[in-house]
Amino acid sequence: MNRDTIMVIHEKSPFQDGLVKLIDLKFGHLFKVIKTETSKLQLYENGCVPKLIILEKVINPKTVEFLIKMRNMGSKLILVTLDASEITELELNLFNAFLVKNMRTSEMLKVMEDLLDYKESYVHPDFGDIFLKKLINA
């Protein structure tokens, strides 16, 4: 059976290790959960298109290129960060969802589930003020 995929672009941080385990526990029975490093993204360019791609930071132009390609093919992209002020203009235009690292686990999983099922976007309320300011100044 060929299952849909959730990809976590993983740079070996303790947060990401826990996130991968959490996603696998919640969604592993329905989705294949893949973790990979940014340096290995080219291995997935011509493979299956993940339903969700989750990462903490856009590291380099190759990552941006990969994310744009996957988004154009139907992937939904989630950025998980602690500080909304770190979100760049590029990331604002690229990602479907913006989550806070320290949000409740149940809330984070619910957002992921909603994005997998029907939602097109999500912005954590802690980021709303910064997003509005960026829109006004655009």
Short description:
This is Response regulator receiver domain-containing protein. The chain is α/β, with parallel strands linked by helices. The protein contains five helices and six strands; from the N terminus they run E-H-E-E-H-E-H-E-H-E-H.
Question: Features of this protein?
Answer:
six-stranded parallel sheet, globular, Rossmann fold, alpha/beta, 19% strand, 138 residues
Low-confidence sequence ranges: none
β-strand amount: 15-25%
CATH superfamily: Response regulator
Shape label: globular
The CATH first-level class comes to Alpha Beta
Largest sheet: 6 strands, parallel
- Rg of Cα set: 14 Å
- Please, what is the average pLDDT? 88
Discrete helix count: 5
Number of domains: 1
- The spatial strand order of the largest sheet comes to 2-1-3-4-5-6
Q: The CATH topology is what?
A: Rossmann fold
Report the count of strand segments.
Answer: 6
- Following the backbone from N to C, one meets helices and strands in this order, namely EHEEHEHEHEH
What portion of residues is helical?
25-40%
Query: What distance lies between the first and last C-alpha atoms, to the nearest angstrom?
Result: 46 Å
How would you explain this protein's 3D organization?
This is Response regulator receiver domain-containing protein. It comes from Cytobacillus firmus (Bacillus firmus). The protein has a single domain, classed as 3-Layer(aba) Sandwich (Rossmann fold). It contains five helices and six strands. The chain has helices at 14-27, 61-72, 89-94, 105-117, 128-137; strands spanning 5-9, 32-36, 52-55, 76-81, 97-100, 122-123. The chain has a six-stranded parallel β-sheet. Helix 3 links the parallel strand 4 and strand 5 (97-100). 24% of the residues are buried.
